[in-house]
Amino acid sequence: MTKILLEVPVFTIEAALLANRFGVDRLELCSDFGEGGVTPSVGALAFLKEKMKTPIFVMIRPRGGDFVYTEEEIEVMRRDIQILSSYGADGFVFGVLDEKGNIDKRACEVLIKESRGKPCTFHRAFDVCSNPFMALEEIIDCGFKRILTSGMRNSVSEGLKIISELLKLAQDRIIVMPGGGLKPSDVEKLKPSKRLLEVHASCKSYRNSKSIYTSNDLNLSQNIDTSNKVLTLDEKVLSEFNKVL
């Protein structure tokens, strides 16, 4: 049986290097974990391409929040694809919706055209669209190679039913890649479909900062105190995934 490909999203250089050392199949390079991922720096991509041969797909997202973008934001996304492609990006990850929760095909086609044949993933904007089965067909028509989805729910575990339906409907026309709180046990449940080709798992963890000095009077994050923590990868969780792929 063909091994299921493992893609790992990485938000730090440390996490990317660890994932590469562990032998993951592909990286999704992002910035700003707190916003769910936005476009990373050119410097980060350029550095990592010098250090590894692992394919790197790059998130193209100009800001956090919703996925309804202005013409100006679409132009920024197009230019980001152009620039990051010149620095060796192997593929791109993005998604654009309209005000009614439908796929914005015109914007997506502009961005896919700019990718000049490099594979594009429609990310979890898919999970907030109004009709996932209609969206599947529109995404295929646009020319995307895969969809990243948690099955319209907060996690893959909760969205297994819809993911199973999408895998069946997609056939061999597009890759449906489960991701979003993915657990090794979810992989085991989806394997019997015989259509599971790729999965997306963050395997994230935090390590303590190496800084000796810390401030007790300041928290730079409104949601969680990470001022003395560094986002990295949990190699134990990576090992657990390798056992089921």
TrEMBL record:
Keywords: Cytoplasm
Localization, UniProt: Cytoplasm
GO cellular component: cytoplasm
Domain of life (superkingdom): Bacteria
Family: Belongs to the CutC family.
HAMAP family with a match to the protein in the record: CutC
PANTHER family: COPPER HOMEOSTASIS PROTEIN CUTC, COPPER HOMEOSTASIS PROTEIN CUTC HOMOLOG
Name used for this protein in its record: PF03932 family protein CutC
Gene: cutC
